[in-house]
Specification:
Elements: E1 3-9, H1 10-20, E2 25-28, H2 35-47, E3 53-56, H3 60-72, E4 77-81, H4 83-88, H5 90-98, E5 104-109, H6 123-126, E6 134-137, H7 141-156, E7 164-169, E8 177-183, H8 185-191, H9 215-230, H10 233-247, E9 254-257, E10 264-268, H11 273-285, E11 290-295, E12 297-299, H12 303-309, E13 315-320, H13 331-340, E14 348-353, H14 363-379, E15 386-389
Parallel strand pairs: 2-3, 2-4, 4-5, 5-7, 6-7, 10-11, 10-13, 13-14, 14-15
Antiparallel strand pairs: 1-8, 6-12, 9-11
Helix pairs in contact: 1-2, 1-7, 3-5, 7-10, 11-14
Length: 392
């Protein structure tokens, strides 16, 4: 395998990964902080470095609608968006998923208005967590590059055929310059075959996609969609293992850090995991048996990985970057509670909401979460789930 190390903005590295995937069509509308991704792709197309169609549109709703059309005729298709743009796509997200169109999307996570914010949290993706797409989270620029290429192979696998979102934190990840190991075109071509659609619209062989569903068939169709999304799990793991053999960089649905002998764990997603790792190191130096769980695969939700990772834990601290307004805690915490509900020896779970609207969450905040959780645990004789606000 051939690789070269290059320092570049993470958004540009993602665009380079899309180029290496040999996409046929890109359609997107500019919105902060994802614009640099498609801006660079438009330059590559204009300069002739990428043989693809770049289709400008008047909105994100139109962008994903165009992608639905290009994917339906068998083109390898990519788009990118963020926040309000992703919300404007909401209607088409469900259509694309139900039609099994393997589009890949970059989602530069950003807070939803109001109040207006251009900064990072996870409220955009969590608002559409049940849209039927495979959803992957990344921690750093190298992961963004790797997961973009893997996403095409996952989405287009005939056993899957599900659109896939690669989440990267807006600004705190998308706009930073990092060192990346870029894989050669030859190696990517071996890893990612030419897309051959199982079904495609063609005037010589007419077919119908997204037809009207009477009540007698709608439930069956949605159940089938749920089954195929759940069944994509082993294919995702398979693709990541293949990528690991090619590059030496291995990924899994739930990743761990210093979990050996841990009685307490922090669970987080995205680039703040690196801050949490620093907090874990500092707490370990103080003799506190804490580790870190990094949730990479959001959909399909890795229930068994979660249950396996928390065995032996007494306390679980979950950090959400989105709030379930009017509910209890955050969406990630509610998923974890659901996964552990029937367990009699489950750890006590504490929900923390942090980092909303781009507020920083430095390592000392993670240390404070652990200390507060341990303090509350000592005060309670019976287990209960608690939501705590953390000021960043």
């Amino acid at each position: 395998m051939s690789e070269k190390r290059v320092g570049m903005e993470v958004s540009i590295a993602m665009a380079e990964a899309v180029k290496l995937a040999n996409v046929d069509c890109i359609s997107a509308y500019p919105i902060t902080p994802q614009t640099h991704i498609v801006e660079h792709l438009s330059e590559l197309v204009a300069e002739g470095a990428l043989d693809a169609e770049f289709i400008p549109v008047e909105s994100e709703h139109s962008a994903l609608s165009v992608c639905a059309g290009t994917s339906a005729v068998g083109a390898r298709t990519f788009t990118a968006t963020s926040s309000q743009g992703f919300a404007l796509m909401h209607e088409i997200l469900f259509i694309v998923a139900g039609m099994r169109l393997p589009i890949v999307m970059a989602l530069a996570n950003r807070a939803l208005s109001a109040p207006l914010s251009i900064w990072n949290d996870h409220s955009d993706v969590m608002a559409s967590r049940d849209c039927g797409w495979i959803q992957i989270f990344t921690e750093n620029g190298q992961e963004v590059f790797d997961q973009t290429i893997c996403a095409f192979k996952i989405a287009e696998d005939p056993r899957v055929l599900i659109p896939t979102i690669v989440n990267l934190d807006g600004f705190t990840l998308s706009h930073v310059v990092e060192s990346h190991k870029l894989v050669s075109q030859e190696d990517v071509d071996k890893f990612l075959p030419v897309y051959k659609p199982v079904y495609a619209l063609h005037p010589d062989k007419p077919l119908t996609m997204g037809a009207f569903g009477m009540p007698e068939v709608y439930s069956e169709a949605k159940k089938a969609q749920d089954i195929v999304l759940r069944d994509s799990y082993p294919v995702i793991v398979e693709v990541w293992k293949e990528w690991g053999k090619l590059t030496g960089r291995n990924y899994s649905p739930m990743e761990t850090y210093r979990m050996e002998g841990a009685k307490i764990a922090i669970l987080a997603m995205g680039c703040f995991c690196e801050n949490a790792m620093e907090a874990v190191d500092h707490l370990r130096e103080q003799g506190i048996p804490v580790g870190l769980l990094k949730l990479r695969l959001w959909r399909p939700f890795p229930f068994e990985d979660i249950r396996g990772a928390i065995k032996g834990l007494e306390t679980l601290v979950i950090m959400d970057r989105a709030i379930s307004v009017g509910g209890i805690g955050g969406p990630v915490c509610s998923e974890i509670k659901s996964a552990l509900y029937e367990w009699t020896k489950r750890p006590k779970v504490f929900s923390f909401i942090a980092g909303l609207g781009g507020r920083d969450v430095p390592p000392e905040n993670f240390e404070e979460m652990v200390r507060q959780a341990l303090k509350m645990r000592r005060k309670r004789k019976v287990e209960e789930f608690t939501t705590i606000g953390i000021r960043g």
